[in-house]
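User: I'll paste a sequence; please echo it back and then give the predicted structure.

Assistant: Echoing your sequence first, then the prediction.
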Amino acid sequence: MFDVLVVGAGLGGLSAALKARESGASVALISKNAPFRSNSSMASGGINAALGSIESDSPSLHAIDTLKSGAGLGEIETVKILCEAAPSIALELDALGAGFNRAENGKIAQRSFGGSGKKRACYVQDRTGAALAQAALKACNESGVKMLHGYFLLKLLIENNRVVGVCALKNANSEVLAIGAKSVALAGGGYAGIYCGHTTNPLSSNGDTIAVAFRAGLRLVNMEFVQFHPTGLLGSGELVSEAARSEGGFLTFENGERFTDEMQTRDKLSRAIERETQSGRKVYIDARRLGKAFLESRLPNFCKAAAAKLGLDPSTDLIPIAPSAHYTMGGIEVDKSARTAIKGLFACGECAYNGVHGANRMGGNSLLEAAVFGKIAGENAAVFAKKAKAIAIDKIAQDTIAIEQKKIDRVIEGESRFNINALQKSLGKKLIAKLGVFRDANGLKDALEYAEYLQTLVGGLACVDKSRSNNVELTMILEFLNALEIAEVSALAALRRKESRGAHFREDYPLSSDRFQKNSYVSRKSDGFYSVEFLQTRSLAWYIDKLRRALSV
């Protein structure tokens, strides 16, 4: 039994655990993988903060840029919280040992990101996420957070609409167990990993915590909005950081001709590149003019990835790219304090929807959201835990463990009739084609029906390897089951949103519509079916006007 239990070891989870521990709570953090396999650790380019190191800036200008990127669905209150907290968060992370690059004046260096009107992204070469996660992990270990890696979340334990712990699979021996807690913070990341073979994310970023929360009765918001990074390495989807463009790399055809503005928002840039690739023209990043020394000092991961995946050298070769599923704006419904509709349950980072990103995240805001709202989730979880009484979970845990263990045993011991790798790839191929950069009704119906068809095969998914010790195949199957549910929800929400907005582009509805200037909410009904409803939000003009008034701009 812990005061606070955090699920997820990315920057959001680490920030939540650290803040809860600093608040005096006993804290445990569980994750299915080691911390440096999180999506946060793979984030490359930077973290936004209006420090004004390079040029004049302010939190209000940062907020206006963020709202513009959100295409009318950003929430004023959470955007204001995010942008006002950003400078102090950047300085806190630097003090923890993030090691941000420095400008000539000794201040934290900053560079431009797409959609941003200022140079406000603080960075550590092109491995910012890994540096921040490492610093936060070190702080968690030193503060006494109990780190439990290799635990796969299966179910939330709930009593009278209050969370009392979780049910998890211990990977080391395939045993199902319960962990009690007065409050729980979910920080398990997004779901772009469901686009297997066409994503910058690890395949484990498949929305596990989102699926678990959905099955517990929580609503999911704006699941149709999937951001495609304009520059994934062709053939693998591996990320080429926006830093490659902000540092001076061009987007060109094979003849060296530039064809678009490299620093426009990611949705517009992805569509520009996708149109060219669909017409049969390859698109490249041309960074040759930057020189080998500069590239290796400022963009070392770009150089390593190009060499490892394509056998190319950015200092001498054009690097072929294509849009790749990168970030998911949708997630678990939470308020500005990271609270869900279940008492004692909080959510933060990419698995949560708090309205910061709206319909399209601005580059440099993902790590920031994880750090800011991770801290908020951890603090509020600790406050809840201090006031709450511990609830004995023996009975509810015993029943749940028995049910979940039976499911795990069936997957391990059953007859394997399908190849899990092949099914993951087939889902990814279908989603990138039908639920990708460009969408239409027929394609979305196809994606939805394909996910439903794959659901009919899950009874034949079982492990070839019958080992109960760190069975990777078992984890892959459990992830795939969650991925199918997430894919269905995302495709259904996209089908119902009959307009184009932000990262969601419908070729059959190419314009934005006032009718759909609303958030989509998907609920899971008792009969297993899903319902979708759209609830009114304010206009972008209204938001910007209110923001200017609130911040005296």
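The CA atoms of residues 71 and 502 lie 6 Å apart. The first strand starts at residue 2 and ends at 7.
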